[in-house]
Amino acid sequence: MLVLDTNDLPVGERIAAYRAVAIGEGGVDAVEEEEPEARIWRRIELWELGTLTLFSSQGTGMQISRSLRQARRDGMDTVAINVHLQGNGGFAWNGHQQRMEPESLSLAHMPSGYEYSWSGTGSTLAFMFDTERLTLRTDTVRASIPFLHHSPIGRLLAHHVRGLHGIADQIGDGLEAEALANATAELTRAWIVSAAGSDRIRAQVARETLLTRVLAYVRAHLREPDLTPQRIAWAHNTSVRTLYRLCESGGLSLEKWIIRRRLEGARNDLAAPALQHRTIESVARSWGFTSAAYFSRRFRETYGTTPSEWRRLSSTPTTLSPLSPATGKSRPTA
Question: Long-range CB contacts (< 8 A, 24+ apart) of 308-313?
């Protein structure tokens, strides 16, 4: 949901509007702009996904900060994780200084205050939820902050958040949103513990978050044709048998889950106007299908139509919505 685009406001109101949003939604108490008001630009979007708040922010250079005084005043006990997407920036917390480059992450524990900035045009994705959702000691959370950039789990978390942002407008209320919020909190918990937990806590959290980490890893490598159960198990230091047991206890078949996610990706690409120049076989290969015949058969079984027919229907103006899986029948639009 769009919260603010300063291009829609007259000069003279832009800085005040952005400060109001930053203070009200992000809990900061100071904003410094790199450019004069006539040249600043800021666009902010926000989604409430269950108990998690997701932000998208982009614009000209700036610095935001949250002081200890503000933290004591509002009593916000939340964590905020930033996935830096564009521009060179910085993050500072309790003496820790971190350079922020594209694809880097930072974690701010709101009761401690922090500073965050970028120069030139930049953009970031951030999410926030209550610290208690991590079920970790406060000293563990804080101790992890200077070391989080060393954890490979950060790459999984960043990929997960980018994917969450890509579908945020399609996520409904209730169980769907809360399940995604839980998965995000679980990945964040594993990320923190991998950097600062004791051996006992690391082992416990590794067990508790294994399925979440496996599915995040699969999403990150979904397009690669050599994404086999053996490779997934090896990447998580477990056996294939344990991997299958884990997925079964989570109520899913690993192979079917991978195929379904790949089919969804290919179906979206086949309907995309910008990709109409690509052959169906090329689209299938880009989603990890090495056999065009196998892809066509599985596509028809799942969606009740062939890939070529789906592409033709998608490119034809119509008042009907996309095909329902496995039936091929149209659903009326609202």
Answer: 308/280, 310/267, 310/270, 310/271, 311/270, 311/271, 311/276, 311/280
Which token pair is 333?
């639009």
Confirm if 43 and 5 have CB atoms less than 8 A apart.
yes
Tens of pLDDT, residue by residue over 59-104, are 999 999 998 888 888 888 999 999 999 999 999 988 788 999 999 9
SS3 category, 54: strand
Residue of 231, 234, 227, 232 lying closest to 262 (CA atoms):
227
Question: How far is it, in rounded angstroms, from Cα 313 to Cα 322?
Answer: 9
Assigned token pair, 31: 């904003």
From 216, 189, 69, 212, select the one nearest 131 (Cα to Cα).
189
What pTM does this model have?
A: 0.70
| Interval 283-314: pLDDT, tens | 999 999 999 999 999 999 999 999 999 999 88
